[in-house]
Amino acid sequence: MTVDVVRTEIVKALSSGNFVSGQELGQQMGLSRSAIANHIKTLSNLGLDIFKVTGKGYKLSSPLIMISRDELAKRLSTSVCSTNLINVLNVVGSTNDEIKRRISALEKGAVYVAEAQTNGRGRRGRKWVSPYGASIYLSMLWRFESGYESISGLSLGVGLAVRRAIAKSGFDDVYLKWPNDVYINNKKLAGVLIELEGQLGGATEVVIGIGININLPMGDLGINQEYIDLQTVMGRHINRNKICAAIIEELWALLQMFESSGIAPLIQEWREADLYLDKHVVLIAGKERITGICRGINETGALLLETNLGIKAFHGGEVSVRPDQSATT
């Protein structure tokens, strides 16, 4: 067995929530008790809450349903990507990197999902905290034959796909923060990271990474902003396979539409979901701070900001948005 397979089997054995001895686990996998203990330690360091009791063995603090390719396949309609495009892994550096490492051999629409990331990241290289089994970490590969100019506003569209997927779980009160964050109750629920490969003038390969907080562990996770998870919002257990399949379906449908029509058909939907529409905000671009009123997006996905000099359009890159606490609404 590979390390990844061993750790997957350990988690499966513990996923019922009952105690399993290290000796029993070792016998199942042909490993020593000390080897099992080392794997348990690694899984704990990845954020999996495992109890150890002398004489009883190990158990998870609560039952865990792992993401399964078979379960995803059952939930996907025949109109979206085939099952052979879906890859479910245990622990990776990042799902985006898994695609980038194999990009030349992968088909358009290939999906990688992981239970944990050791090097998850968001925009501008920020760390994306990725505890084991606590969230959804998913990446999809898409190829745009018409090149870079055809993907303007793509991150906004991906945010809408995530919003639609969450709505399928029965929660509609979801908002988007330009250009690519998903919010509930003014707290961050999910983020999008888009990375581009390819040559100017040729086809563009896009790696779309999505992270959604589902049931984050208690305690200080080192996240430097207000955040929330879906299980807290819904007040019940969330089936990650269901949410994951919904994301794949919505993302697949959106990307097919985006190829032919771009962001234009989505502008009104995005306005309805805009967290800061018609509110005072501050744009931070490097050392520059620009205050104004958010007026939505234009046909390229640029943020429209009403300032003393009129309405100006701001594109992505180093621009971020914060509410203007000094203004009254």
SSE blueprint and pairings:
Layout: H1 3-14, H2 22-29, H3 33-45, E1 50-53, E2 57-60, H4 69-75, E3 86-92, H5 95-102, E4 111-117, E5 135-144, H6 154-168, E6 175-177, E7 181-184, E8 187-198, E9 204-213, H7 230-234, H8 240-261, H9 267-273, E10 280-285, E11 288-297, E12 303-307, E13 310-314, E14 319-323
Helix pairs in contact: 2-3, 4-8, 6-8
User: Can you tell me the CATH topology of the largest domain?
Assistant: BirA Bifunctional Protein, domain 2
Which structural class fits the helix and strand makeup?
A: alpha+beta
Secondary structure: number of strands:
14
SSE string, helices as H and strands as E? HHHEEHEHEEHEEEEHHHEEEEE
Low-confidence stretches: none
Largest sheet: 7 strands, mixed
CATH homologous superfamily (4th level) name of the largest domain: Bira Bifunctional Protein, Domain 2
Based on the coordinates given, report the CATH architecture of the largest domain. 2-Layer Sandwich
Fraction of helical residues: 25-40%
Strand order in the sheet with the most strands: 3-4-5-9-8-7-6
**Rounded radius of gyration (Å):** 21 Å
Work out the count of structural domains.
3
Number of helical regions = 9
How much is the average pLDDT?
A: 86
The end-to-end distance, rounded to whole angstroms, is 60 Å
Mass-distribution shape: globular
CATH class of the largest domain: Alpha Beta
Describe the fold and architecture.
Helix content is 29%, strand content 28%. It contains 9 helices and 14 strands. The chain is an alpha+beta fold and 329 residues long. The chain is globular and about 70 Å long. It has helices at 3-14, 22-29, 33-45, 69-75, 95-102, 154-168, 230-234, 240-261, 267-273; strands at residues 50-53, 57-60, 86-92, 111-117, 135-144, 175-177, 181-184, 187-198, 204-213, 280-285, 288-297, 303-307, 310-314, 319-323. The strands form 3 sheets. It has a 7-stranded mixed beta sheet, with helices on both faces. A 5-stranded antiparallel beta sheet has the order 13-12-11-10-14. It folds into 3 domains: 3-60, Winged helix-like DNA-binding domain superfamily/Winged helix DNA-binding domain (Arc Repressor Mutant, subunit A, Orthogonal Bundle); 69-272, Bira Bifunctional Protein, Domain 2 (BirA Bifunctional Protein, domain 2), CATH 3.30.930; 276-323, Roll (SH3 type barrels). The chain starts with a helix and ends in a 6-residue tail after the last strand. Helix 2 (22-29) crosses helix 3.
